[in-house]
Amino acid sequence: MTNLKGLVLDFGGVLTTPLVPAALAFEERAGLPEGTLLNALYLDEEMVRRTEDLERGAITQTQWNTAAAERIGVPADDLMGRIFADLRPEVALFTAADAARRAGIKVGILSNSVGTDPWNLYAGHDLEHRFDAVVISEDHGLRKPEPEIFRLVLDRLGLPAEACVFVDDTERYLPPAAALGFATVHAKDPRHTVAELEDLLGVPLTAR
Ligand SMILES: [Mg+2]
């Protein structure tokens, strides 16, 4: 038996297909040398700072698009949407989330935002109705891995960290969650993630 009663899911890369292959496909479509975009996003300190500002809601997606376009030498228009055009819902994880809720487990979303205008990663998913809590970083001026944002989603779920599993595709967000008391799962392959969650939560999470 398990004492876990809550499941906290990241959105991009957990409830969607992985981000890096989508970004690599964008580079190819844009005729950029492989790695141009990922280097600009993850290794350029100024862009890393801008992305963190975007996640906190301190700048808009349009401002981010302008800055990123300048860095990588492409048009700014809806750049974030063009970068992630290949992302699709990760059906196995949506199915698992629904099954967990049917089994009485509370399921929340904890997502570092990339802004919602002009491109909205969350559009069409009806998150507010589908989940027990939805915490999008830009709405709170916070971002993972700050402990305050983990506490916020716990508060909304009405559960202590020790009763919850946290799932993220960004591995560096897991230790801060574990330090608060969460069990953690690093999302890489969806089937593996669902199997790990079934083990931890003690309920079947595949389609009925
Ligand atoms: Mg993610």
Automatic annotation (TrEMBL):
Keyword tags: Hydrolase
Q: Which InterPro entries match?
A: ACAD10-like, HAD-like_sf, HAD-SF_hydro_IA, HAD_sf, PGP-like_dom2
Q: Which Gene3D superfamilies match?
A: HAD superfamily/HAD-like, Putative phosphatase, domain 2
The record ties this protein, via Pfam families, to: Hydrolase (PF00702)
GO molecular function per UniProt: hydrolase activity
Q: Which domain of life is it from?
A: Bacteria
- Read off the NCBIfam families from this record: HAD-SF-IA-v1, HAD-SF-IA-v3
Q: What is this protein called?
A: Putative hydrolase of the HAD superfamily
